[in-house]
Amino acid sequence: MPRQERTLKVDAVVLRHQDWGEADRLLTVYSREAGKLRVIAKGARKLISRKAGHIQPFSRVQMVLSKGRDLWILTQVETLDGYSSLRADLEKIGQASYAVELLDKFTYEDSATSGLFTLLTDTMSRLNKEPDPFIALRYFEVHLLEALGFKPELKNCVRCDAEIQAQDQYFSSLYGGVLCPNCGPLEAESRRVTLDALRFLRHFQRSSYADSLRAKINENTRLELENLLQQLLTYHLERNLNSTRVMREINRSLPDKNSADQSA
């Protein structure tokens, strides 16, 4: 993005906001045109503000920005998709918060990564309308890692380059992929990975989202995939995510779904 550009029109998703000054909000957004930006919404906390309803987290908006001395200033905003279901359900709030925090933590200001905006908006749409978020979130994690250059190697052992066979293997975040049964025990930080989990990870890497939805994954493999990807993401981020803790707390606070189904 040229530095001399003084105005900018962007299609963006609001990742988060915070109070700024007496009546303003500081927004962090991810845009198709310029990647991640910090934007001041002047007067957005006033009761009469026309901007406030358009700049809620997770909203997809069209913004016209003016370059201030240090930050972009919001001059016009229009909601393109409010993803209303994401704010009406506590679980969906946690899931959407997790997706936007992941993207926020992995990206830098004024630097756009090809395909990330579409991946984000597609994921928001999927979380907004689909009752089961599991595949939407795992697909997002796998393709976020790929877009950022952290795609794990799943076909050959990352230590000896042997072709992976149809059996349980090991996985190493440090090495960035799968380890064969000979190499895995030699690495203290490696973990066992079942053939089923490895098969579904490969499926998510190479398949469209529509094809990924056809996967039938049992509960044990779901938990294994979620934990494995969490470990890999945390390794690359070198920090834990606030939203994962929030999602766990939300899940603990909700009635057990299986018990509810049985009593119905």
Shape by Cα distribution: elongated
Number of helices: 9
**Share in helix:** 25-40%
Distance between the termini: 56 Å
Low-confidence stretches: 258-264
Q: Which whole number gives the mean pLDDT?
A: 90
Biggest sheet statistics: 5 strands, mixed, barrel
Radius of gyration: 21 Å
Q: Please report the total strand number as a whole number.
A: 8
Task: Please trace the helix and strand order, writing H or E for each element.
Answer: EEEEEHHHHEEEHHHHH
Beta fraction: 15-25%
User: Given the helix and strand composition, which structural class is it?
Assistant: alpha+beta
Strand order, biggest sheet?
1-2-3-5-4
Sum this structure up briefly.
The protein is of the alpha+beta class and 264 residues long.
